[in-house]
Amino acid sequence: MAFGPVIGGWHFEPAAASSGNWMTDHRARIALEESERLQSKQRELLEQTSDRRTPAERIRIWERLHGLTLPRDANHRLIGVIASQTDLARDQVHEEQRRRLACLSRIAAAVPTADSGR
Which residues pair with 11 in a beta bridge? Predict the structure, then answer.
């Protein structure tokens, strides 16, 4: 940013953008970021069904992509959707539910309650 004297006061001279047009640069950067986001999402969609991933990993990817968590109810409507979109059998999704519930039970058992100190 530069200021230069002008009769009657000062005037503002904007600094030159690196390529000459900052708006074009901004739009190009936004387009590049969007393209990178789409590529990342495509990679995650492929990983969501990859045989290299465990059922737990596939389900975590599904949860992240959709902003949802695996329902605790074994009869929940999303179980079929999750199984289909992760290329898992319903039994594998149910097994992950059981694993998570067992983990929560162990955590709950380890947390002392107000009455346990008596």
Answer: 4
